[in-house]
Amino acid sequence: MNDLIIQIYFIGLIIALTSGPLGCIILWKRIAYFGDSLAHASLLGVAFSLIFNILPEIGIVANAVLFSILIVIIRHNSKLNFDVAISILSPFCLALSTLIIYNKKTSVDLMNYLFGDILLVSKHDLIFISIISVITFLWLIFRWKKLIRIMLSDEIAISMNERINLIRLEFIIILALFISIAIKMVGVMLITSILIIPASLARRFSNNPESMAIIASIFGAIFICLGIRIAFIYNQPLSPTIIAISSTIFMLQFIPVKKFRRI
């Protein structure tokens, strides 16, 4: 097994372990649509990084935070509800970023950011991914109990003097950091699937938040490793292969199975 394949598996496992707990939080708060919109908005961060000649990771995180703040401002200062505001801003960010990248006339291939290409991940990216993963795990350990209280009820969290808005902002930043490390592997259009599918499947096999987060990470690791293996064997694009496999396995649970009684 050469160094490139080892690196690909390593990155995949890091993303799987990180996406498990984050995907569970998204499910508990029922903000899957927001996560999808945040991923779409992250492409605008890539476009701004080209304009200002900065690292794409910095542009993605900065734009994600600004996008979230803008959503909150619109929500509190207009009659638009949360879903409508996101439905307007998300495609706007996607369209604007496409126009900027197209007219910038750079060598950047938009498809690599839309659907991912792990072969473009460099050693610099590997170091960045490792650092962000450590930050994410430390934040989850430090904030886990507070997050559970907020998931149960905002009123309970407020009664225990939890700083709800601060924790929500921190979660948005952590989610933006995850998107910045996952965008090269799975792409903007498919990032939410990496978060949601393992967590949704883990819900059936868990009875508490901690076990659900662990099982989600395990499922994510299985899906990614299986997808990488099949993609290399049959010479298929990596990101769509991973999502196709995980979605197929997820949908298998809905197939009715008849129980035959022995006569």
What topology emerges from the helices and strands here?
Layout: H1 3-29, H2 32-52, H3 56-77, H4 82-104, H5 110-115, H6 123-152, H7 154-159, H8 164-186, H9 191-202, H10 209-233, H11 238-252
Helix pairs in contact: 1-6, 1-8, 1-9, 1-10, 2-3, 2-4, 2-8, 3-4, 3-8, 6-8, 9-10, 9-11, 10-11
Summarize the structure in words.
- The chain is mainly α.
- The chain is built from eleven helices and no strands.
- The protein has helices at 3-29, 32-52, 56-77, 82-104, 110-115, 123-152, 154-159, 164-186, 191-202, 209-233, 238-252.
Short description:
The protein has eleven helices and no strands.
Strand content bin: under 5%
Strand-pairing-aware structural class: mainly alpha
- Order of H and E elements: HHHHHHHHHHH
| Arithmetic mean pLDDT | 83
Q: Give the overall silhouette.
A: globular
Give the fraction of residues assigned to helices.
over 70%
Low-confidence stretches: none
Computed over alpha carbons, the radius of gyration is: 19 Å
Biggest sheet statistics? none
Alpha-carbon distance between the two ends: 52 Å
Number of helices: 11
Q: Count the beta strands.
A: 0
Characteristics of this structure?
263 residues; mainly alpha; 11 helices; 80% helix; globular
